[in-house]
């Protein structure tokens, strides 16, 4: 064919105009994960989050601290300095900052100028995760970091990993909302051919987009089959829920069982994966992953097998979406996307992200613009 | 000196304004070589041509297929998918396309939306070469791919090669139109000192620019001398014709003989080189080369020697014009070029390329702008 | 803290508006060092200076020559050509230039067009250094290259080095004007903790900014202590003068002695360092260094030890300011700098650089704009 009919393209472009994409400005007024807690130590850690340079460290009492990674004097990266107790000393001219980012000493003079400093970013540590507020300080209390109780539960076993992902966070959210890709992108790892066409239900609330897919009966790929004992069973069930919980977090919850057994008297196996997305730049992403299971808790071999298999699959996302990024970063006025029925939750989610970004732009609430 | 006089610079800039250069838009309504035919197989091949991503493969019957390398759904590179018979399956969500680029199946739903698809690019295979039409589909019949009969003739022996050239196609055409550079850029390979100052004749028709140079008497560089038996003969003749045949093709034809012998009773040796230029981006080029000779047809050693020597020389073009590219990509309003008499065919050619590009822009005939 | 008060930020930005920074246009009407003299030989040397491509070589008589590194014909880098005696032959089509940059031969034709050529840049060689004038030829006589007499004096021993510095020249000048950074950036090499807070005097004249710092009593870091014999003496004196001499040159002069001895009867040791800055691009710099001492003249081991220690320290500047560059190249309208008392000479110097750059822009005196 030459091209789809002009009205179809025109409609596609019109539809896209209200959806977030690679170049949509970041949403700052939200909690994001800055790091796994154990990455933040007495060594200064430099990390770019939503385009902002941040330096992270722990005070002597163990409290995590996040400051703007740029000395107020001549913009030197504070992460190249050192700690003296809780005080961060700039590595260039020795300006000293306390844990609130306030300038408390200038070595070349007796009196320290007052009211000078760098931004301190509020943090919230939960389990493995260190959340950060990069938004308007005045709106700090208006949102809470999402709570992932299972990460801390004793009857759940967790495993975690990190990818420096060469793609944008909107595409990754969309990837996660539309798991029909399991049959293709993950054909050789976690997917099965019947996944893409399985029936699903939607529950789309503003800011919380949920899709529940029932793959029954099915066979399980080895990562699930071998670890649950359902390997080779052709009446297996795979009930998967994908949930967009915030711009920073997508959760996948899956239940496995043998559908040939009666509901009240069959073992059920649960897994959950927190896909934690913190944009670094418009085209790159800190991709933190925490995966948990409520079975084979003490079986280290199963834990390692599952981790290896899953992260091989997540690496397929990273490679595939990295390749996608190279296409969409060249997008121009001729580009368009065609959506189908299974895109409904992703479309709703992208409309929401766009709305949030627009709202911040309109109200000029982005923290850096506010004194 | 400080600088040439202002009026000279002003005139030079004025003259350049009507000539194609590095940043002139591509000419789409033309046949270009997409690949050597043997590069296109049942493995998906991704290639950027005139800034467009194209995926190439062969159907089960052996027919070459070229489609836009971007799924209509979410822009995933189709070249990362796989073939099922003649059907190209996207590697992300499994959208299926036929060889015309028409979407024929969406795995997540029963009914496939109609009228959706990606662009199919017409192909024409001749001998070693696979030509592609990236232009306006409505203008497909208005131009023909240049015919290089000698590539297919049994009494010609051919050899081919490819460079991913780090320079623009206009500079390469100009390089080929002005072979006085043989005495300098190719001083140690195919050139001789007398080449630059040899007499020449011009035949400049709109869209077909021809220069015939008579280097007589001369000595031949080893690549020709050793292979024709004229090595060491100081009455050799080298009659070279450079022809711009299309934006995609320049042909060089040379006849060698001993000028001390009578015309009717002397052996003559012919070579031809097709310099096939397919812009990849404004600053890079797929540079395909086919070289043929009508002598020493069965002598494999001579064939290999000639190939090695010639491609060493073409590599000098690639390195030299790559260095040139780094200068001209920094060109600004202060830049200018001074032309001399031997630039006449190149100037005519660049004026023609500019005119073609302008015409496409004016008429908005560039295919991507037309539904 | 969130951020400094809005009026403080507003004032900081206002103050910065009149200061040179990374993106301030270059000052062309000034002498810069193009190379160490011994870098320029009969081999063509290509070097980008203030954004201009220059080719450097020596004539047969040993005279250094600097020409625009771009053939007037088709912009080929002349540095890829070769010398025939004093004549530079372009490596593309063999255009020949004399040492004044005048085109004297075009191989493809009998008559050479007149009045064509490339810019010749005036040079001045002094001691180790080859100075170049890239500015308006009409203003050549209005400024003199700074004279560094000690480089040529027999009772001084010199050592030199070069860094391709990944940062801008304004930041490097500022670094050199504010040596309070010795206590921090150079804490482990040439700095001591008391350096930053030592008393200083200023002498700020238009275009010549001088700061004299008296670090008395102090102890000397090994590079000075071990080489002067004052190692371990806790009554040492370190009297350091930092001088901005031109956009191209900053000089540091230091006197060491034992302050416990009477002035007339104590040995004094002097060192000088010429920090020679020639911008390459807005974000990179040719950083030439010449260091001299008037003691231990014949002690090769001391010379090598001092060179090694000093260049380790200069490398700290290169690394640190390279890291700084990556921050300030991302500067936007939200960025600001807060200055303190010890910044006075740097501020004066940056105001002067800005004024010079503005003057060139206003008067359109940049040489490239003048025929």
TrEMBL record, chains A, B, C:
Coiled-coil zones: none
Keywords associated with the record: 2Fe-2S, Dioxygenase, Iron, Iron-sulfur, Metal-binding, Oxidoreductase
Rieske domain residues: 31-132
GO terms for MF: dioxygenase activity
PROSITE patterns (UniProt xref): RIESKE
Record InterPro entries: Cholesterol_7-desaturase, Rieske_2Fe-2S, Rieske_2Fe-2S_sf, VanA_C_cat
Gene3D superfamilies membership: Naphthalene 1,2-dioxygenase Alpha Subunit, Chain A, domain 1, Rieske [2Fe-2S] iron-sulphur domain
Name of the protein in question: Bifunctional 3-phenylpropionate/cinnamic acid dioxygenase ferredoxin subunit
Organism: Pseudomonas ogarae (strain DSM 112162 / CECT 30235 / F113)
């Amino acid at each position: 064919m030459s091209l789809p009919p002009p009205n179809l393209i025109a409609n596609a472009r019109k539809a896209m105009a209200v959806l977030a994409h690679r170049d949509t400005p970041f949403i700052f007024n939200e909690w994001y994960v800055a790091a796994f807690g154990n990455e933040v130590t007495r060594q200064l850690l430099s990390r770019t989050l939503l385009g902002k340079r941040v330096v992270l460290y722990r005070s002597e009492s163990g409290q995590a601290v996040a400051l703007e990674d740029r000395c107020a004097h001549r913009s030197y990266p504070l992460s190249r300095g050192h700690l003296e107790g809780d005080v961060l000393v700039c590595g260039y001219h020795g300006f000293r900052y306390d844990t609130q980012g306030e300038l408390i000493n200038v070595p070349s003079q007796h009196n320290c100028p007052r009211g000078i400093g760098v931004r301190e970013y509020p943090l919230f540590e939960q389990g493995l995760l260190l959340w950060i507020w990069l938004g308007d300080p005045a709106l700090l209390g208006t949102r809470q970091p999402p709570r992932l109780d299972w990460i801390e539960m004793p009857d759940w076993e967790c495993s975690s990993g990190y990818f420096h992902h060469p793609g944008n966070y909107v595409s990754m959210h969309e990837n996660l909302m539309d798991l029909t890709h399991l049959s293709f992108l993950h054909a050789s790892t976690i997917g099965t051919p019947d996944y893409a066409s399985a029936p699903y239900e939607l529950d789309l609330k503003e800011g919380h987009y949920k899709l529940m897919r029932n793959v029954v009966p099915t066979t399980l790929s080895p990562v699930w089959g071998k670890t649950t004992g359902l390997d080779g069973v052709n009446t297996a069930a795979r009930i998967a829920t994908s949930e967009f919980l915030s711009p920073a977090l997508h959760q996948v919850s899956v239940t496995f069982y043998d559908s040939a057994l009666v509901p009240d008297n069959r073992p059920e196996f649960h897994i959950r994966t927190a896909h934690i997305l913190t944009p670094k730049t418009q085209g790159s992403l800190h991709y933190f992953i925490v995966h948990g299971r409520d079975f084979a808790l003490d079986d280290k071999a199963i834990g390692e097998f599952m981790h290896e298999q899953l992260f091989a699959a997540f690496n397929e996302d990273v490679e595939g979406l990295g390749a996608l990024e190279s296409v969409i970063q060249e997008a121009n006025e001729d580009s368009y996307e065609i959506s189908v029925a299974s895109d409904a939750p992703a479309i709703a989610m992208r409309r929401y992200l766009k709305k949030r970004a627009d709202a911040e732009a309109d109200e000029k609430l982005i923290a850096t613009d506010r004194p």
